[in-house]
Amino acid sequence: MYTIHDRVSYSRIDRDGLMGISNVVDCLQDCCMFHSEDAGHSALELLKKDRAWLVSSWHVVFRRRPTLGEYISIHTWPYQFKGIFGSRNFLMETPEHEVLAYADSRWFYFDSAAGRPARIDREEIEVYPTEPPYEMEHAPRKVNCPEDMELKQVIEVSPNYLDTNDHVNNGQYVRLAANALPMNYPVKQLRAEFRLAAKLGNTLHLRTAVTEDRFYATLTDREGEPYFLCEFL
Questions:
Q1: Residues ≥6 apart with Cβ < 8 Å to 52
Q2: Distance (Å, rounded) from C-alpha 217 to C-alpha 200?
Q3: pLDDT tens-digit readout, 189-203
Q4: CA-CA distance, 197 to 170, in Å (whole number)?
Q5: How many Å apart are CA 114 and CA 37, to the nearest integer?
Q6: Predicted confidence band at 91 (pLDDT cuts at 50, 70, 90)?
Q7: CA gap 35, 149 in Å, rounded
Q8: What is the rounded distance in angstroms from the CA atom of residue 220 to the CA atom of residue 12?
């Protein structure tokens, strides 16, 4: 298990003084990236050999979002590598071990030169010892959205959306989806599926739909092919 310790800053809270939904996801992603850094297999080092880890799905359960100034610990560990895929859990808790959030995620190894997934290198697997998965519901990785979704916004991908892979970072998709939530919507869980990597110059069409207990958001291209699908419970 890999752990970082953090404190909730003002730049990461919402109008209620709680860490924002997308900021929680960013915090989990940061923990994963620091794990790679300290293991000697950072994202920048992988780029030198035309490799990258790209996320394909998130399932985040929120028990309580931390407040401004609160100290938190974030833990992460991989629990499975198979073919091109790696699965990783996350846990966010207080110093007193109150669980704030936990998550399951699935990633795939990517050959950036060929532009396609690649089998995980043996040395990449060996540097991350696996541990048993976190005890949580394993929800479907695919998000099935309603067909009659309403177009809300058209967004041009700008340079500040991109990460070192020249793709829109996964946290940016979550942020755009969370910004579309109705005011004071009580999010308990988030499921996100990533289909295509949007790049500079692409246009994202944000569509939403609401059911009795779920809010859906998708980001698609002009023809409706999804880059990202998201379900808030």
A1: 43, 46, 109, 110, 112, 165
A2: 21
A3: 999 999 999 999 999
A4: 9
A5: 24
A6: very high
A7: 38
A8: 27
